[in-house]
Specification:
By secondary structure, the chain is of the alpha/beta class. Helix content is 44%, strand content 12%. It is built from 20 helices and 15 strands. Helix 13 crosses helix 14 and helix 19 crosses helix 20.
Amino acid sequence: MIVVFLWIEGASPRLAKAQKLLEESILAQGLRPVRFPAGRKLCLFGDVLALGRKEAGSPAFVWCNSDVILTKNPFDVPDPSQVYGFRRQETPGGQLGYGVDMYYIPVAVWDRDLCLDVPALYLGTSYVDRWISRAMQQSGKYEDLTGYIDHPSHPKSGPANDSANSYYRENFRSYNRWAKRRSLEKIDSPPYLLPGLGHVWGVRDAIQRWRAERNRVQAAFSPQPPKQVHPMNLKPQPFFIVGASRSGTTMFRLMLTAHPKLSIPQEAWFLGRIVSTLDRSRQVDASAMEFIRGEIVNDALWGGLQTPETVDRILKPVVGQTLDRVIDAIFRGCGKGIQPGVRWGEKSPRHSYIISELLEVFPRASFVHMLRDGRDACASMAARGWYEGSFRRICEHWASCVESARSAARCGPSRYIEVHFEDLVTRPDEELTRVSKFLGVETDARMFDHSRQAKEEIPDAGGEIHKKLLRPLDAREIGKWKSSLTLWQEAIFLAVAGKVACDVGYADGHRPGARALLPLVQIHVAIQKALRELKVRVLASRIFRNGFLS
């Protein structure tokens, strides 16, 4: 059982002493202290909690402030399945300490709810304690407790009101954005600082209320037509289908692109190279536009569909625009074109690895994560000889791709959804209705005939890789690994990707023989990994010895 806390290197003598006292009190309770190393700059609360989740060796973990001490084991709570906030004991002055300085968080609650929508709150200033408390109060799984911690370093503590601090203002904004997503009451505007006058409470709120009332009265007596927003002022809001290869992403793309309000062109491999290479915060100048043009024209899939003249015609009007608008113009103008009012998407398994880059370019993007039993997906890749026939490398690819795609879950349930291949094949009505609602469209009957769409959209629909797209949905595609994987291959999957498979709901069904081989396979995989690292070191030493690198 662990307690995670912020450990500030080079802290002041007072804080350094407080950190040491905290660590001693954690050890005195028979718990393991976990330090989150930090410098002078403040750290995000979500990063500290993520470390606690990673290090948790039990069904729960505890976070606490760096300047408290434990007087009681925080794992001794009435109900281990809910979240508890621990307030300080009463100070010698008789005042109850302000705020919550320690949380008991079950791992299941973190994985199911909290980690999906983590606001950017900095430790060391206000509003940090309100997020978890309000989120769990909304679900009825939260309670405040006292008597577990003491706060000897601050006998008269109170709320931090330093609104001149940029972290304070950022926490205020981040919390209110999170509260708006959860339909919770927002915090009133913080006070602001006037030179020589200190904090002025309520003045900004009073002015805003007066302006709102004035605008309401003016609108009542002189109604104006609704303001029209020019399409160029609307931020693009695409969606991305991500997930490991051979997980049904192409079939799923055909289902969605059949909808008249959705359009998903061919896989745009050039997109990853563009967002990873160009400065995403600046406007696209002529030289960057030339780079984009070359990537599209030379792309393995899009290059054969677009002529250089077509690409030039699309890119010329958007020179000097931001990268999101340039990419939006590319997807709307290339190929058959996408009409206004139609939402475009993109499907490329390899883009599972650039979730952060895509979110920087498209902050309002949504993600649909296609999942399939890793054993079926890996068996399909192995049958096609991928990764030079190395089943271990195939399993590593599947696990890393799934983990990378799941990082989009931080966008929250309104912009991230998981679709299981098995559910889509056996219950297409339910799954397509659920996904259509997520994308903001009504379900269309044409979405259920992906084979007809394949003939129009996939140039090599009859080829080896996509030949099954011409057939109706077939539940026999589920569980085919049982007849195609050997016990040794299944044991390799367990050793390399078993934990990830368990995390996404594919923990059952392994054959006893594979589990019996697991210890031997783990040794085999460890030896292969060591040999691979040795090979890399030998190659690097040869390069340096031969003078290829300086």
